[in-house]
Amino acid sequence: MDSVNSSEGPWLQRFANGKPLRKPKRQQPWKAAPDQSQDIIASVQCLLDRENFVREVDRYLRHCDFLDLRKTELLYKKYLEDVSEPFMQKMKDQMHSQSEEEVQKRRREQFSQYLNYCAKKGYVFLDHYDPAEYDPFFQKTCRDCWKDESHQLAQ
């Protein structure tokens, strides 16, 4: 005969907490009517297709954004190589080709022309001026040195 404290008996498993343990019933899979299950499958498939479509559109838009960014980077790089850097180099060469004395002399001449014109006329208006007497746009009109000969338009 088995002792009361023996763990071999099935009664111990049944009365562990003082209550008999019941084996849980297995849940049967839910079965819908055949026509309902087809409708459910079709609607779920429609949702999955729509979700996949949205995912593909999102991936395509991210790819287009990446391509636009890359195109902008390449255009900027080409601009730097073809326009900006040659222009900056030409400007540096022009600035280094002039001595400080020449620059100061030119500034004094322009300032004296301005003062002489102001003393003679009493005013300087950009609307009414005579280029033969005094041209305030002299610096802007006499800048052939800034023209870039490497990118001339073909005629």
Listing every helix as H and every strand as E from the N terminus to the C terminus, the arrangement reads HHHH
List unreliable stretches of 5+ residues.
none
Structural class: mainly alpha
Main beta sheet: strand number and arrangement? none
Helicity, in percent?
55-70%
Cα end-to-end separation: 119 Å
User: How many DSSP helices?
Assistant: 4
Write the layout of secondary structure elements.
Elements: H1 10-14, H2 34-97, H3 100-121, H4 138-141
Protein name: Family with sequence similarity 228 member B
Organism: Cyanistes caeruleus (Eurasian blue tit)
Family: Belongs to the FAM228 family.
Brief rundown of the structure:
It comes from Cyanistes caeruleus. With 155 residues, the protein is mainly alpha-helical. Helix content is 61%, strand content 0%.
What does this structure look like?
Belongs to the FAM228 family. It comes from Cyanistes caeruleus (Eurasian blue tit). InterPro entries: FAM228. This is Family with sequence similarity 228 member B. Residues 1-36 are annotated as: Disordered. By secondary structure, the chain is mainly alpha-helical. It has 2 domains: 32-97; 99-141, no CATH class. 61% of the residues lie in helices and 0% in strands.
